[in-house]
Amino acid sequence: MENVDKVIVVGAGPAGMMAAIKAAENGAEVVLLEKMNRPGKKMLITGKGRCNITNVAEKQELIRNIPGNGKFLYSCLKAYDNEDVQLFFLTLGVPTKVERGGRVFPVSDKAADVVDAMVLQLHELGVKLITDARVTEILTEDMEASGSDGLEKAVQKEDSHSQRAVGVKLADGREYQGHSVIVATGGMSYPGTGSTGDGSRWAVRLGHRVVKQLPALVPLETEDEWVKELQGLALKNVRAALLSEGEKISDMFGEMLFTHFGVSGPIVLSLSRQAAQELDKGRFVELELDLKPALTMEQLDARLLRDFEKYQNKEIKNGMRDLLPGRLIEPVLDAAYLKPDRPVHTITREERRKLAEVLKCLPMIISGTRPIAEAIVTAGGVDVKEIDPKTMESKLVKGLYFAGETLDIDGYTGGYNLQAAFSMGAAAGNWSVWNN
């Protein structure tokens, strides 16, 4: 074993690189181990290659946009918030800009600039970055009380740690020893970037509980063939409601996209976490689409009446061309049990009312999610109840820290997940030095 007094960081993603930087800034010798051939692979594809590094929302809004245990992040967000992240990158020569929805991007619109700046900072701080280094085990030793005055025994009794982390072992047999080990290996999404659930497996071996890992921010698959036939159609300003066993559990307003397997787009991705959880419980899951959320039923009925008067001598499929995209008209008419070639002037008041109901509530059955490998983030991971929210240290193993998507923490799109990773990484990096 290489016997050195170091902080060992496993995983060179956003949380891991930030942890390594903060530990080094506090004077520690740091080894950063990455199993891929280069650091930050997943960061390079975030924000469609532009890297949405954070969001300018207030702290409470940040937490609300992290449905997966956002409240756990209160302490580390207070210590290292979105302003700190923007200042951090500015000092590294990566100025940022704010776009719609408070999203923060590098001015260059290049994720590579974000990654390269962090890697350069690692080198300048003397962090030993080792790529192609696959860790297979977290090394620990028992914490045995000793000392004739009983002081160490008293300290031992006050905390719950029975072991402490002392290093890591690599697949090639190499071992690195340190006084702290920070695990920032990500979740299970995009395994090609290195996120294959390693950290969760190590955590289980060390006695931690891992919440079942499910896809989040992931497209949804549908049973309805009409949905798939609309592949490529994008809708704006619609509202989608998620139902489980017929009961609404959430809804989102914004944009969505029909695909060859089902539905995607921002509002679908935001609902997918809960959809995955309900499906995992074996429940019947549906989406109900409100195509005209700005209109009440009465207003929509009046709108239909005006359009029908305008196109009274047309077939109904042509009488709705001012209201809906052309490809969506026949599926809506089918759901309302109206034939598309029916003359507009033959539509009864009751049939018009039924059509309005469909426009306000177009249902589709959700049969599943896309695979977790295609998810933007992972829901589930190391149980946060077993982690100190201020320091990110394990409550079970002294000197062992977790940060990033390895933990049961996930947020919506919009910069929230990277902000969480940076804040957790900063906390783990700082406290891994201060606590030892």
What is the element layout, followed by pairings?
Layout: E1 7-10, H1 14-25, E2 30-33, E3 54-55, H2 59-64, H3 74-79, H4 82-91, E4 96-98, E5 103-106, H5 111-124, E6 128-130, E7 135-142, H6 151-158, E8 163-170, E9 175-177, E10 180-183, H7 198-205, E11 210-216, E12 220-222, H8 225-229, E13 234-244, E14 247-258, E15 262-264, H9 266-280, E16 285-290, H10 297-310, H11 316-319, H12 326-335, H13 349-360, E17 362-369, E18 377-382, E19 397-398, E20 400-402, H14 416-434
Parallel strand pairs: 1-2, 1-10, 2-6, 8-19, 10-20
Antiparallel strand pairs: 3-5, 4-5, 7-8, 8-9, 11-18, 12-15, 12-17, 13-14, 13-16, 14-15, 16-17
Helix pairs in contact: 1-5, 1-14, 10-13
Question: Describe it for me?
Answer:
- This protein has 436 residues and is of the alpha+beta class.
- Helices cover 33% and strands 24% of the residues.
- It has helices spanning 14-25, 59-64, 74-79, 82-91, 111-124, 151-158, 198-205, 225-229, 266-280, 297-310, 316-319, 326-335, 349-360, 416-434; strands at residues 7-10, 30-33, 54-55, 96-98, 103-106, 128-130, 135-142, 163-170, 175-177, 180-183, 210-216, 220-222, 234-244, 247-258, 262-264, 285-290, 362-369, 377-382, 397-398, 400-402.
- The chain has a 6-stranded antiparallel beta barrel. The chain has a 5-stranded parallel sheet with strand order 6-2-1-10-20, covered by helices on one side.
- The radius of gyration is 26 Å and the shape is elongated.
- The two termini are 21 Å apart.
